[in-house]
Amino acid sequence: MKNLKISVKLIIAFGLVLLLMVGMAIITTTSTSRLNDSADTFYNVNYLNTQTAESVSKHLHSAAKNMLGSILDSDESDIKGRITSAQEDFEAAGAGIAYLRENYKGDVSDINGVSDQFEVIKEYFDDFTEYAYANQVDEAFAVYEGHIMEAIRTAIVHSDNMVDFVDQRSAATYEDMHSTGVMSIAVVIVVSIVAVIIGLAMATYITKMISSGVAEAEMAAEKMTTGDFNIKITYESEDEIGVLCRSIREFAGDMNSIIDDIDHITGELADCNLTVQSRCPNAYVGSFSSIITSLNTLTEKLNEIIGRINESADQVSSGSDQVSGGAQALSQGATQQASSVEELAATIHVISDQINDNAANAHEANDRTEVVVDEMNQANDKMRELVGAMDEISASSDETQKIIKTIEDIAFQTNILALNAAVEAARAGAAGKGFAVVADEVRNLAGKSAEAAKNTTSLIENTVSSINKGNSLVTEVADKMSNAMEATTVVAGLNVKISDASKQAADSITQVTVGIEQISSVVQTNSATAEQSAAASEELSGQASMLKEMVSDFKLRAY
What we know:
The chain has 559 residues and is mainly α. It is 89% helix and 0% strand. The longest helix has 140 residues, at 289-428.
């Protein structure tokens, strides 16, 4: 059985257990069916027959009781009710006898005996009823006691015989059911124990057989996961575990061969032997075929690369010498450029300082021009106020002339009044002398007033003439101030433009200076880079020589 497949072993084991379970199920089903039949017989035959036979006996006793009660009662309705109840009891007993005749399995003579007694009861029941309704107690009791009661007693005896028979059948059926149940339980227990023993034995055997091979395979797999393919598996079988163990052994052997071969190839490659070849190319099968292909390709590529490196080493060496010479020349040119750029940067710095000074002076001139513009604006405003005041003085002179004119008119009128007063005083004679004196004084006063007004008019006219001349001069000065203000504004605008242009020029020079400094930095960097390139070229030349010496250590295949 060892060489059978695991599936076959499991099928055999589970088949035996399944057969035992099927046998146990058959026994259980048979026993259960038998128990069901016995229970059906117990209920449908024995139990119902017993109930029916006892019911017949009960109804016969009830009928006898009702008939006896109808004899003893004197009320017609009570007699009628009891006789009706007795008839119903006889009918129920008859129905029970009809059921027993169909289902009773005992002596038929008991059923016939009950039926015969029913015939006797029917024969005398009408007579009994007639005597009972007529209250003929003696006649009714004679019929009851002499015929009907005797038939009832005999029928009850036959009914009791049927009950006894059915009870015996019921006891036998119960015993049979009990025996069947006990036997079924015993058989199920025995079969279950046998199934468990067989199942445990088969499980132990199969488990031990499988676990031994699986344990060795597991140990081998654990070693292989750590890279150890030197394994030993002793399990031998033709089942799946045996095939697995054999496959693991073969796989481990192939892996050892492949690892040894790879170690040999890589070792030779490490020793600069590019002519090495695999010693077991047939071991690389399946997914391992790509490994030998990659190794062969690697060897060929290394041969090709090292060969090309060997060829390129000479070219690199000669090229590095040329690069070194060019780098030296570039370094010298870069140094000269750096010197020239530094001189140019110094000159630009001087120009930048001068332009910055000009910009500062232009800014200061612009500030001062703005102050002058503000002062001119204020002087122009004051000149406008002066022109306005001169206009007001001229207007006041005109008003003064009007007042002088009025004074002259008053003096003229006063003078006329004085003349008129003198004439009237002369006419009055001696009475008007005093008035004439007053008229003379008034005339003198009028003359003085007229003269004063004339002088005042002359002065006012001179003043007005001077005011008009001053007003003309002030107007002319105001025009000049306005023209000067406009010129000053233009100059201020030009100063702003000069200041902005100087600032922009200073910014441009600053940017030029920054650019020159960047160029100087780049030139210096180029100079340093050229020197580094020269040094690197010399180093490259030395490395090319070393590379050529190193490549000469490799053994290359002939192409």
